[in-house]
Amino acid sequence: QSALTQPASVSGSPGQSITISCTGTSSDFGGYSYVSWFQQHPGKAPKLMIYEVSKRPSGVSNRFSGSKSGNTASLTISGLQAEDEADYYCSSYTSSSTPYVFGTGTKVTVL
Amino acid sequence: QVQLVQSGAEVKKPGASVKVSCKASGYTFTSYYMHWVRQAPGQGLEWMGIINPSGGSTSYAQKFQGRVTMTRDTSTSTVYMELSSLRSEDTAVYYCARGRVGSGYPAIPGIFDYWGQGTLVTVSS
After folding, report:
1. Nearest-neighbour CA in chain A from B110: distance (Å)
2. Which residues contact B124 (CB under 8 A, 6 or more apart)?
3. Least confident span in A18-32, B25-39, B69-83, B107-121
4. A2-52 pLDDT, tens per residue?
5. Nearest-angstrom CA–CA distance, A103 and B67
6. What is the mean pLDDT of residues B110-117?
7. Residue A41 and residue A47: Cα distance in Å, rounded?
8. What is the per-residue pLDDT for A95?
9. What is the Cα–Cα distance from B81 to B70, expressed in whole angstroms?
10. How far is CA B100 from CA A51, B38, B50, B92, in A?
């Protein structure tokens, strides 16, 4: 099972919006609802930011939003802030023998 | 509040086994699944498997079949992940993550909502 494909890095200035893509195959996303996004600061555990494509856990800023179209999911961070600088990973349920897969990860830099 | 507290760092020799624990608190232990995910130094996240603390059933990633064993102790609300025949490529931080069943399709514990702090396992001769 191959990892989902994400851009290695994305950057933006404070206040701007950025979008991170997450591309898989039809077996990765299919008609499934289990696309999630995680934020990971250096030396820390991942933190759930988006689940079921576009839902935000309690306590997560509404500056974070998720969507999916076909075999590509996206995470948008609006009003970029210095604290958003971190690594971001997508994940999905898949129909393969290994049912969960993560993306390759994207480093977000706030200029 | 939900907490997952993992055991401390380990150093093992190639060929040995390691057993990492994850103690849950703040919720009903048997009502949620537990995933194990690892991250090699400077690398991405990799799903290893899942255990249902209620009945003890497990499902492992194909890559780890035959080398990984996940168990649980309901009396202490603790899950364990044991990895055998260690090699240098197994050097990584190992995380437990609670699996919640969402409202989406299919009805599987696909929401990794709380994570442990991670356990560094170093395999070196």
Report:
1. 6
2. B11, B12, B13, B14, B88, B91
3. A18-32
4. 889 999 999 999 999 999 999 998 777 767 888 999 999 999 999 999 999
5. 24
6. 96
7. 9
8. 83
9. 5
10. 11, 19, 12, 25
Q: Residue A76 is which amino acid?
A: T
Q: For residues A66-83, give the mean pLDDT.
A: 95
Inter-chain CB proximity B108 and A34 less than 8 Å: yes
Scanning B18-77 for CB atoms below 8 A from A yields: 35, 37, 44-47, 50, 59, 61-63
Report the alpha-carbon distance of residue A87 to residue A39 in Å, rounded: 6
Q: How far is A97 from chain B (nearest CA, A)?
A: 7
Q: With 0-12 CB in 10 A as exposed, 13-18 as middle and 19+ as buried, what is A27?
A: middle
pLDDT digits (tens, 9 = 90+) for A80-106: 999 999 999 999 998 888 899 999 999
Residue B49 above 70 pLDDT?
yes
Confidence of residue A1 (pLDDT cuts 50, 70, 90): low
CA–CA separation, B48 and B94 (whole Å): 9
Q: Closest Cα partner for B121 from B28, B10, B27, B47?
A: B10
How many residues in chain B?
125
3-state per-residue secondary structure call for B61-81: CHHHCCCEEEEEECCCCEEEE
CA pair distance A91, B125, nearest whole angstrom: 34
